[in-house]
Amino acid sequence: xxxxxxxxxxxxxxxxxxxxxxxxxxxxxxxxxxxxxxxxxxxxxxxxxxxxxxxxxxxxxxxxxxxxxxxxxxxxxxxxxxxxxxxxxxxxxxxxxxxxxxxxxxxxxxxxxxxxxxxxxxxxxxxxxxxxxxxxxxxxxxxxxxxxxxxxxxxxxxxxxxxxxxxxxxxxxxxxxxxxxxxxxxxxxxxxxxxxxxxxxxxxxxxxxxxxxxxxxxxxxxxxxxxxxxxxxxxxxxxxxxxxxxxxxxxxxxxxxxxxxxxxxxxxxxxxxxxxxxxxxxxxxxxxxxxxxxxxxxxxxxxxxxxxxxxxxxxxxxxxxxxxxxxxxxxxxxxxxxxxxxxxxxxxxxxxxxxxxxxxxxxxxxxxxxxxxxxxxxxxxxxxxxxxxxxxxxxxxxxxxxxxxxxxxxxxxxxxxxxxxxxxxxxxxxxxxxxxxxxxxxxxxxxxxxxxxxxxxxxxxxxxxx
Length: 466
What we know:
Layout: H1 19-22, E1 25-32, E2 35-42, H2 44-56, H3 58-65, H4 70-81, H5 97-108, H6 110-123, H7 129-140, H8 143-152, H9 161-179, H10 184-190, H11 193-202, H12 209-229, H13 246-259, H14 267-270, H15 277-293, H16 304-315, H17 318-326, H18 332-349, H19 353-364, H20 369-376, H21 380-402, H22 408-418, H23 428-438, H24 442-453, H25 458-465
Antiparallel strand pairs: 1-2
Helix pairs in contact: 2-3, 4-5, 6-7, 6-9, 7-9, 10-15, 11-15, 12-13, 12-15, 13-15, 16-19, 17-18, 18-21
């Protein structure tokens, strides 16, 4: 894999401004003026939790007032994370306080990942510097790994926690570099679709590319495992995962092209063109880069309480509803949307509390219906019926204000021309159009794919299908 970093171009680690930032931000690799750069990204959940403890826990507030209190703050979170019996949970503390404490510490240890990676890179140039950084970050952002490391510190507390963590990370980086457990290809194969999607989104990729990359990765994994990982002639159990080669990419591309027109393929994939082995290789390298640059944060679900708090403060606020009726809207696009937005808000405001909860979990937090079943103690058919009822009410409200006879035909044509390859799935109309395309016969679907997915001229389509 090409190495954009060398010892001279390792980016400088930016300073964090205060104690809150030291325990609630995450490193992000970026590019500035065509050079690698590092920046800190905020995590709102950790910021809120830090402020909560600062307000409610006098000991943390006192530590924050001390100019040299940062190491003691780290120890404060460690005591919570390792289930210290002396720490009796207070009523105001969140139920997931131990998980949050681990997240605070992982954020704090980001700087030690950087310095450990830099130290190893100064001793060995076998791998790019960002690979060493990735090994360390993947380790600390795995809850079990970090917890074991923190508990082990009880035995060897003769040194500072910071020193202990950095020395441990240096050993971990060296070990992983030798045995290749975190090779780029292993990282690519083992990450979930959800993690890959989040990584690509953070790396500024959008649809239809994200769906295409994920679909391509599905078939690359199958080919690569068969040809390389599970092939005893190529690799023995426990050996380093070998690099993929052109034959792997070619075979994976053939699978992609053969499967893209099946009903199970995402619309964004079936609407696109066939790909080559070279294109498959380029896509997989993009996925690897995105995964390396954005390690998944430890178990970072949106909490129902946070969503409900935001709900109360904003989405269903009656004052905001009144404000929408009285404020002058200067932008013409906003004015055009105002009647439907207002109608939707009225419908949402009239929903029952249990309907609000389902909406928040399903559309806000991204819960699957199976997860909703466990969370709400409802069977999936009941959940499906309630979601359908809500969607139907919104559709009826939209029809009432939209006068469809005047604009539907034009909308469909514009959608085909502009959004066919990358529909906005959260838009109910566009989602319905995607569903409608799946109900066409195979020849009609092929015409749409060629004309609007691949931009083939109508004359050429007629010749090709004759």
